[in-house]
Each structure stands twice: as C-alpha cells, then as structure tokens.
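User: hey, got a sec? need DUF6533 domain-containing protein folded
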Amino acid sequence: MAHIVAVIDIQVLLGMKTSTSYDYLLMLPTEVQYVWQVKWGVGKVLYLLSRYPLLLVSLVDLHRMTSHVASEKECRVLYTLIYHTMAFATMISEVILIIRVWALWQRRIWVIAVLGSILIAGMITAGIVAEGALRGVDVISNYRVVSLSYPACLNVGKGRRMSIVLYIIIMVNGTAAFLLMIIDGIRSRRYLCHGFVQNSSMMHTFYKDGLLYFAALLATSIINTTVSLTQPLEYANLLLSAQTSLHSVLSTRMLLNLRHSAQRDISDVNSVADPSTYHRRHNITGLRFATDTDSSTGTA
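Assistant: Yep! Here you go:
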C-alpha cells in the first residue's frame, strides 16, 4: 500500500505545484500592477500571505520528494513545516473571502461576528488537532532505497484527523459565506433587475467569481472529506495540497479580478452624487485594493 501512496503522492503534488506556478506566472503582470505598485495596506498584506508562503513551502516539498536521503527527524521537521504552512495559508484565504462577503453586506457587525466566530473556532480546533496529528505521524524515511521514483519521506500515519477537521472547517465557513452571498443577491434583486450589475463591472465580477469560487471550494472540501472518511488511512492527506493550492489561487485571483474591474468603475462612481448610488459606492469602496487617487495610502 505504501508504495502506491508514494507514487500517487508525487503525481498529485507535482500536478498542483505545476498549476500553482503556472497561475503565478500568468497573473504576475496583473499582480505587479495592482499589488506591488500600491503602498502597504490590509488588502496587500492578506494577498501576499495567501500567495507566497505556499510558493515558498513548495520548495520544501520538492526537497522532500527529491532528496535521496532523509532521516526520520528531518522528515518530521519537513512535514511540520509543510502542514502548518498549508493550514496558515488556507486560513488567510478564508479571511480574504470573509472580508469580501462582509464588504458586500455593507460591513454589518453581525455578518463579521458570525463568519469570524466560525473561523476563529475553526483555527483553534485545527491548531489543536494538527499538533496531535503531527505527534502521531508515522514517517517512512529513506524511502529512496526502494526506488528513486519514491519520495525521501512518506507520511503513512495518523494524519487523518488533521485533514478531516481542516476540510470540515472550510465546508462550514464556505457554506455560511456562500449562503450570505445568495441571500444578498436575492435581497438586492431590484438593483440586479434595473441594471445594477450591468452598469458595474466590479459587482458583476464579484457575484460571478464569488459564487463560482465558493461553489468550487465547497465541492472540493466535500470530496476531500469523503476521501478521508472512506479510504484507507494512508490516503487521508493525499489531496490536502490540492485543497490549499486551490484556496490560494482562487482567493488571490478574486482580489486581482475585483481590483481590475473596480478600476473601470471608479470614475463613474466618483462622478455620481445621487444618494441612491450609495449602496453601490459603499460596496466598491469596501472591495477594492486602492484607487488611483488613494494608492498612496494602500487602502484595502
């Protein structure tokens, strides 16, 4: 069983690293324009924390897969770094998605209270479970003595609890945010029916990307939870990297797409003084990185 897990582990990881690297290179010009050229702010910090830790830990994971010799102690250090970075990046991505929904609901206290409570409870639970799971890890080191196609380290131990709890946290938080988006869309249907979205490329992007991204993340969480609960123990964490990579890619893409769309709406918003446009202006203000006029402040 272990040798099958080893082969699948390498194939899944290489596939995710390749897709993540491709997405990074594809979006780099947009990132330079909308992230690197504005001063520091909450939006920029969250973007970088969601994007770059996973890119850096990919090098650690490549070392784990390609190293010819690794002691059990080194393997445990590698897995600890990899798992904690994945959990951290996933939670940052969840924070980004929560802030987007909060802004859509005009920064209402109860919205951030509900979503924030779910996230904080999940983070505490995930931290406790992760520590317990890592202490129970059974690592096969020096696996290359069997075949050079196998990784130097392979976790075939008790990491099932960590992955299941992480997936459930993502499902609960994602479901709550997804429902809030649906409710807001229904609540704002009079704006939608009268050209609100058609006249705002940013709001069109938010609803389109947001609904698709939340649906995709929810679907992958359900699949991963099902795999962890129904398949042998060795397969529990095989799709963990896929889940975290998808979170990072989708959340950062949402920010970049929103910033790009908001850029086209700013002049129109600034030129309209009608009080009936407050809802639209307020949402755009809460969803952008920074406008051309306030980029010096790095507004989130």
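Quick note: The chain is about 75% helix and 0% strand. Let me know if you need anything else on DUF6533 domain-containing protein.
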